[in-house]
Structure formats: structure tokens, C-alpha cells
């Protein structure tokens, strides 16, 4: 299958908004090339960047998404440019705004990035290990083995790593969990290995669901994870102790309309994928729906928020 790699050079401020535009066009996920994060990883010694120089210009972020090459592509590109231009009218710094589109084969973008994804201990006990690497686990390590393929979620991006560390604190034995926008399935799997009894993992994109199913089997947790296609929680029945939503701010805000009907009385929403500038917007929506913000964790301009129904502790 042929894909169009659509790339835009933008600002930190516009990153999440650009990701939302891509999402609305049907992209299953985005690749964010943030030079600040790149420099941090180079200096961390955790990844092999021997051939990659330190980034000098840290103000320009490159956001990429992959769209199928079909009869709708030209219209989608016109809509994308129009929506990006409209950011200026909203007083958003879109950065350079340079857009490019290159046709590639499926295997080119699902395989080449693997040279940069290595085993990493993300939390106090959770270790994320690529399926193709060897790792000798320590006595306290819990290893989650991943091959994200074309789906978002390796555990190394702050939005995911913050969620993993929060899950280490939140998850208790016997919990029921919903994972909204599961991507590669990494957070659903993490919840199970930390003790959750049952996880319902949903995504709207079939590519993500395919990757998640593979990873669930790889980690031998298919008996505790049910996976399916859903627009947010619309196709999910019942209530959970914990709902995970590592998506973007505007989608989290949409989720509040469905949240109370799917959370148990003492339930928690763990929301991530929220750029720092949008914390106030998510907070405002949470309060308007009768929720309170229990905790906000920030890392590299991204935030994870622990949210609970007001009066329930």
C-alpha cells in the first residue's frame, strides 16, 4: 500500500492543534519531531544517536502524519492547508508553516524508525522493551514488550511515559479499566501487568487495533484485555474504575460528555496528550462537568492530568 507522508514545520504552540487537524483528516497518529526532546535523548545515553547531531534550532517542531494515497488525498491536502492557515486568525503561532507531501511504501515508515527505539525503564518498575531486543530483567522489573508498527505508542514520548508512571501509582488489583484511543495498546497492557483484572481497549483506527492486538498477544494478556473499534466511549458498555485517555486536549474535552456514564463512583480519568497551553481549557471543561483536578504532571510542554468526579474520593 502507498502512503503520503505529510509533514509540516510548525511551533511548539501549534503542535497539538496540527495533530488535531491530522486526526480529523483520518490519520491514525502523528509523529512529532521535537528538537528539544531529541537533544534530551541524545544526552540521556538511553538511545543510540551516534550518527545524529544535536539540534541547534529548538523552536521549530516537525509534525508528520500518514494518509493513504487515494482519490481523497488532494482534497485532504487542501483542507489541511486551509486549517493550518486558519490558525493564524486564532492568534496561534503556526511557525514556518512549510508543508511537504511525499509518497512512500508501507514498509518504509513502519520499519525504519526501529533503529531509534530501545529498551527503557520508564517508571519505577515498568520497562518497555522492543520485541526485537534482548533484555535481562532485574528482580523488580515488569517488562512490557512492544512492536508499535504503524500505531502511536512506544512509551518514550512524555505523554505516554507520564501515563505509565501514573498507572504505577493508580492501578490496584482487580480494577476495571477503559483505555480510549489505545494506539499500540501499551497503556492497556501496562494496566494489566500492574494488576488490573479487566481492560477494555478501544480505538477508531483499524491500523492501531491491528498493532494493539499483536502486542496484547505478545505479552500474553489477551485473557484480560478486550479490544474493539469505538469513537471514544460510544461503543463501550458499563463503568470502569479508571479511564485512560492519552489523546489530545480537544478530544479529552469531548470525552467529558460521556465520562460520568462510564465511570464508577470512585473512578478516575487519567488524561494525557495535553500540551501545556491547553491545561486551562481541560480544567475549565472538567469543572463545568462536575469534575475536579486531583493532580497535574508536566514534562517537556506536555501534561498528564488525574481527574475525579467532585465529592468522590
> What is the CA-atom radius of gyration, in angstroms?
19 Å
Q: Give the end-to-end Cα distance, rounded to a whole number of Å.
A: 50 Å
Average residue pLDDT: 85
Overall body shape: globular
Order of helices and strands: EHEHEHEHEEEHEHEHEEHEHEE
- CATH fold label of the largest domain: Rossmann fold
CATH-assigned homologous superfamily of the largest domain: Vaccinia Virus protein VP39
Task: Describe what this molecule looks like in 3D.
This protein has helices spanning 15-24, 35-44, 73-89, 106-111, 158-170, 186-193, 206-218, 249-259, 279-288; strands at residues 2-10, 30-33, 61-68, 99-105, 120-121, 126-130, 142-146, 176-180, 198-203, 225-229, 240-246, 263-275, 291-299, 302-309. The chain has 313 residues and is an alpha/beta fold. It folds into two domains: 2-113, Alpha-Beta Plaits, CATH 3.30.70.120; 117-309, 3-Layer(aba) Sandwich (Rossmann fold). The strands form three sheets. It has a seven-stranded mixed beta sheet with strand order 10-9-8-11-12-14-13, with helices on both faces. A four-stranded antiparallel beta sheet has the order 2-3-1-4. The chain has a three-stranded mixed beta sheet with strand order 5-6-7, covered by helices on one side. Strand 8, helix 6 and strand 9 form a beta-alpha-beta unit.
Chain-wise SSE layout:
Layout: E1 2-10, H1 15-24, E2 30-33, H2 35-44, E3 61-68, H3 73-89, E4 99-105, H4 106-111, E5 120-121, E6 126-130, E7 142-146, H5 158-170, E8 176-180, H6 186-193, E9 198-203, H7 206-218, E10 225-229, E11 240-246, H8 249-259, E12 263-275, H9 279-288, E13 291-299, E14 302-309
Parallel strand pairs: 6-7, 8-9, 8-11, 9-10, 11-12
Antiparallel strand pairs: 1-3, 1-4, 2-3, 5-6, 12-14, 13-14
Amino acid at each position: 500500500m502507498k502512503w503520503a507522508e505529510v509533514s509540516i514545520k510548525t511551533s511548539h504552540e501549534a503542535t497539538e492543534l496540527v495533530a488535531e487537524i491530522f486526526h480529523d483528516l483520518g490519520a491514525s497518529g502523528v509523529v512529532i519531531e521535537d528538537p528539544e526532546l531529541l537533544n534530551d535523548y541524545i544526552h540521556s545515553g538511553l538511545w543510540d544517536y551516534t550518527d545524529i547531531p544535536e539540534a541547534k534550532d529548538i523552536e521549530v517542531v516537525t509534525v508528520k502524519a500518514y494518509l493513504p494515497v487515494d482519490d481523497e488525498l488532494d482534497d485532504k491536502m487542501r483542507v489541511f492547508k486551509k486549517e493550518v492557515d486558519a490558525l493564524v486568525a486564532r492568534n496561534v503561532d503556526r511557525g514556518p508553516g512549510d508543508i511537504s507531501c511525499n509518497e512512500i511504501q508501507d514498509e518504509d515508515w513502519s520499519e525504519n524508525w526501529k533503529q531509534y527505539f530501545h529498551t527503557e525503564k520508564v517508571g519505577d518498575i515498568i520497562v518497555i522493551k522492543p520485541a526485537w531486543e534482548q533484555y535481562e530483567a532485574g528482580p523488580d522489573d515488569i517488562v512490557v514488550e512492544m512492536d508499535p508498527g504503524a500505531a502511536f505508542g512506544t512509551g518514550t514520548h512524555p505523554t505516554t511515559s507520564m501515563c505509565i508512571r501514573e498507572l504505577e501509582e493508580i492501578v490496584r488489583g482487580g480494577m476495571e479499566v477503559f483505555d480510549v484511543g489505545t494506539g499500540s495498546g501499551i497503556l492497556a497492557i501496562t494496566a494489566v501487568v500492574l494488576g488490573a483484572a479487566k481492560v477494555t481497549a478501544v480505538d477508531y483506527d483499524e491500523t492501531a487495533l491491528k498493532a494493539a492486538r499483536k502486542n496484547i498477544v505478545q505479552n500474553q494478556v489477551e485473557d484480560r484485555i478486550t479490544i474493539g473499534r469505538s469513537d471514544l466511549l460510544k461503543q463501550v458498555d458499563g463503568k470502569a474504575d479508571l479511564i485512560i485517555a492519552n489523546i489530545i486536549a480537544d478530544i479529552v474535552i469531548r470525552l467529558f460528555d460521556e465520562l460520568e456514564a462510564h465511570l464508577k463512583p470512585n473512578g478516575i480519568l487519567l488524561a494525557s496528550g495535553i500540551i501545556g497551553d491547553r491545561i486551562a481549557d481541560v480544567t475549565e471543561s472538567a469543572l463545568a462537568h462536575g469534575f475536579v483536578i486531583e493532580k497535574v504532571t508536566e514534562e517537556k510542554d506536555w501534561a498528564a492530568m488525574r481527574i475525579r468526579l467532585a465529592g468522590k474520593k
